[in-house]
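lol ok so funny story. i was supposed to be doing the assay writeup but got distracted and ended up predicting the structure for this chain instead. priorities right. anyway since i did it might as well share w the group, maybe its usefull for someone
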Amino acid sequence: MISIKSPHSNYDKERNSFDLKETTINLFKDNNLEYIINSDNSKLSNNNKILELDGNVLVKTIIQEGDKLTANSFTWNIQSSEYLLIGNVKFENSLVTLSSNKAILKKNTNIIEFFNPVKYKFKDNIKDSGYEINSENAYYNIDNKSVNFKSKEARVRSKIYY
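and the output, tada:
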């Protein structure tokens, strides 16, 4: 179940779509709020099967407090529960920052796949320590907070500093 709030809504009867501004979307599972998504603009089309958001897209999870995902644009295929994020994609929580230009969140697995190039930074409480990793692809598991890195042609590069 989803709820969409917007101070400005326009329905285009010919295209069977809603154009919305300053959108807040709440996603529920079993009547429990799971995600809150905000954006500057959005469009609900294709008989309410495709939701497209653009401009300052922010996805916050309720299941993992403090997790947030940002992007320039976000497309949600409601039937397949797959979310596509494009442009300045960044996942951040208290432990890590992952950034890329493209990512896909598959709701059925709760895994975010980040596409080439991917930058990963581990946050350490000690100011001058931690590590960075560059990879072709990265897979972040929201449930267990783990990251896997894969590269077909290049090696995964790590930088450790302390």
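The two ends are 46 Å apart (CA to CA). The mean pLDDT is 84.
back to the writeup now i swear
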